[in-house]
Design brief:
The protein is of the alpha/beta class.
């Protein structure tokens, strides 16, 4: 992979590692597209979740896209909003409705139900008790379309400066999501430092 010197970029999913986002402050390859699947980052993690708070002490601006599960039991939206609000530079967040933590892995349905049936350590035993049956959530296929499409759009918008990709992540996002049967919404960050959500309340 090539590290574009002027347009560093990160993809963060709700189930992505502390290391990925923290790399922006210490890794000369922070601009290289990367991602991982492990929890971490918010300042007040739930019991059993890695207590690794991000400082966002990045050495240069990083265009960041958060892909978030609306019903993530392990990493609730409140923590994702905190990270998003603290993230410096250009940033976007898109939230997938009816999605949980394991909608960001392969074989979503099997992984989700396997986790629900797993005997976790006492400090994390609340996790599978709070997880809803996969039948109540969105499909793995929808989640993968969400991840693939928005990741590609983000890279094209940042690295190639493609106007169409930039529109998809901007005013055209609701149309693009609907055209691909993806039930998601965008959270934007305003210059007033007051975040807004595209989700109907």
């Amino acid at each position: 992979m090539v590290d574009p010197p002027t347009r560093p970029s990160l993809i963060r999913t709700a189930s992505e590692s502390w290391a990925t986002a923290s790399a922006g402050g210490r890794d000369r390859h922070a601009g290289t597209p990367r991602g991982a699947l492990a929890p971490g980052g918010a300042s007040n993690p739930k019991p059993g979740i890695i207590p690794a708070t991000l400082t966002f002490a990045w050495s240069r601006p990083v265009a960041t896209l958060y892909l978030v599960a609306e019903q993530d039991v392990c990493l609730p939206l409140a923590g994702m909003y905190e990270l998003f609000d603290r993230t410096p530079g250009s940033k976007e967040m898109v939230i997938l409705r009816r999605a949980d933590h394991l909608h960001f892995v392969d074989q979503v349905e099997q992984a989700h139900e396997r986790m629900r049936a797993t005997a976790l350590p006492p400090e994390a035993s609340w996790i599978n008790r709070e997880m809803r049956p996969i039948a109540d959530l969105c499909s793995g296929d929808e989640a993968h379309r969400f991840i693939r499409g928005l990741t590609a759009a983000h890279f094209d918008a940042v690295f190639k400066a493609e106007p169409e990709a930039q529109r998809v992540l901007g005013e055209d996002l609701p149309r693009a999501l609907a055209a691909n049967s993806i039930d998601a919404y965008q959270r934007r960050y305003q210059s007033t430092r007051s975040p807004s959500s595209g989700s109907p309340e």
